[in-house]
Design a protein that fits this description.
SH3 type barrels, mainly beta, about 5% helix, twelve-stranded antiparallel β-barrel, five-stranded antiparallel beta sheet, 2 domains, Porin, single chain, 1 helix
Length: about 350
């Protein structure tokens, strides 16, 4: 009888402790009105923090200036004003200040209002990737036009490294016109240095388009840059570096290699609800071909829809003042589509 009662008490104690065990393993937000939210913080963006809970069908979106206390279970990359970056365990101390305890035990404190963004960094390498894919299709009776577009993106982040990869494909067929094909892909790898204000950049890009009779241009490059502005509304960076071109044309007699310098600028605006904009521009004066200058511009606008879907519009333009075929110095494309992002 005693054994039975003891077993029953232990069972009740175990069941009683389960909620608290779950609590210790979850992210916690306490608001200034004493509301307590337990779950998984997904992101801080545009001054709004999003948390997913087990007791709600949809995520909670809370204005971050209403948060009084925060504690995250995973190691977190915290982006502060002026481009400062802190990596470690994020919580709030007794004075109401945010603090990050780094892996070497140092404690960095700041006001919660200084936080621009945060990303929880998973211990598993493959869990640090995020991506998106979108498709578009246009059809017109006039000229029997059929146009297909597809694009995708892949992002990686940890405490000192960033990676952005993207690909965009366009195929267009219509009566009484040559088939139009264009493929544009690139991979950027950033190494953050000097308190998040400076970075090193390695980049590889690929371009193929029928307008410029270009079968393939592969352009690996190296550079360094600085964030000119990095706050809770935007980030803007400038980059300088060198690039090497390997160019293959429809007419193989025009194939060539060349070296270039480049100056680039990247702008990301995100202080708009459900809307994001990215823009990148590069000017590339040749170092090996006298008088040759190229430029590339890419702009993308996205509008978020429910369930991680979005609609987007993109514009790209490529210019070469010494094209393989006279008169084909410029190629541009405007695309629209519906997509889905995943993490």
């Amino acid at each position: 009888m005693i054994a039975f009662l003891l077993k029953k008490k232990l069972t009740c104690l175990f069941l009683f402790c389960i909620p608290f065990l779950g609590l210790s393993q979850a992210d916690t937000l306490k608001l200034k009105d004493k509301t307590l939210l337990i779950g998984e913080v997904k992101l801080l963006k545009q001054g709004v923090i999003t948390i997913e809970t087990d007791y709600s069908d949809s995520d909670f979106k809370v204005e971050f200036d209403k948060v009084d206390y925060i504690h995250l279970k995973k190691k977190t990359l915290v982006i502060l004003t002026e481009g400062r970056r802190r990596f470690g365990n994020l919580t709030t101390n007794k004075k109401g200040l945010g603090q990050v305890i780094t892996e070497d035990g140092k404690i960095h404190t700041f006001t919660l209002s200084e936080m621009v963004a945060l990303n929880e960094i998973d211990d598993e390498f493959w869990e640090r990737f995020m991506g998106s894919i979108d498709l578009g299709y246009n059809i017109s009776k006039a000229n029997n036009l059929h146009q297909f577009t597809a694009s995708g993106a892949l992002h990686y982040i940890d405490k000192m490294w960033l990676m952005d990869g993207s690909i965009s494909i366009l195929n267009s067929i219509q009566d009484d016109a040559d088939k139009t094909k264009r493929t544009d892909a690139k991979l950027d790898i950033y190494r953050i240095i000097i308190d998040g204000k400076w970075y090193l950049l390695a980049n590889t890009s690929f371009l193929s388009n029928t307008e410029q009779a270009l079968d393939a241009r592969i352009s690996p490059s190296l550079g360094a840059g600085k964030f000119i502005k990095n706050n809770n509304k935007l980030y803007w960076g400038l980059t300088l570096g060198f690039s090497y071109n390997i160019e293959n044309y429809v007419d193989s007699s025009l194939d060539k290699t060349s070296s270039e310098a480049f100056i680039g600028s990247v702008l990301n605006l995100f202080n708009f609800e459900d809307i994001s904009l990215t823009a990148e521009a590069r000017l590339l004066p040749s170092l090996s071909q006298k008088g040759r200058i190229r430029s590339d511009v890419d702009t993308t606008v996205k509008y978020d829809l429910p369930s991680d879907f979005y609609i987007k519009a993109g514009f790209s333009i490529n210019y070469d003042n010494q094209p393989a075929i006279e008169g084909n110095d410029t190629d541009y494309v405007l695309t629209t589509g519906v997509g889905w992002k995943f993490d």
